[in-house]
Amino acid sequence: TSTWTKPAGITRIRVYVTGAGAGGGGGNPNWNNGGGGGAGGTAIEMIDVSSVTTVTVTVGTGGAAGTASNEGNDGSASSFGSYCSANGGQRGARSWHSTSGERGRGGTATGGDLNLTGGDGNSGGGGDVSDESASGAGGGASYWGGGGQNGASANSVNAANYAGKPGRAYGSGGGGGDDDNGNSYSGGAGANGIVVVEEYA
Description:
With 201 residues, the chain is mainly β. The chain is built from no helices and 13 strands. The strands form 4 sheets. A 5-stranded antiparallel β-sheet has the order 1-5-6-7-8, with no helix packed on it. Strands 9-4-2-13 form a 4-stranded antiparallel β-sheet, with no helix packed on it. A two-stranded antiparallel sheet has the order 3-10. The radius of gyration is 18 Å and the shape is elongated.
């Protein structure tokens, strides 16, 4: 949290407010991929600041990754004073066996001239056979770009690849983690949100 202070001569601003991405869910035995985390929403607004001096700015923190067999964590909201705000994404599910498809929703936004919902994280999946691939449970994309990749398919040559990857762009969701032969891996963390202020004289 910080404060925006209006520079001399500025009369209007345009703000882009994006909530944080959520963490991806962890993998679950056997060969079940966790779901991707949702991306934060984005509010875009033109504001007359002729009579404004300062505005409180809050930037959302990305949701932590879900550990093995656990859901990820929600991303937190971003805001520009009371003008507009954007919710963080919803956590990725732990695996196909529970709430996958009911988690990972993108965050909403309010107060902007344009309010954009963040992208949903993809559902987890998998099966009980060793050669089944992960379902492609990448994290949701935000206004600024794409989310993290899901953990690698079974039989990867590098065990580190089984973990979900963190969100790549501001406000994007983390990918879901995989499971390989009973070894479950965590999802990827969601990316922090962002608040951009363009200033016009």
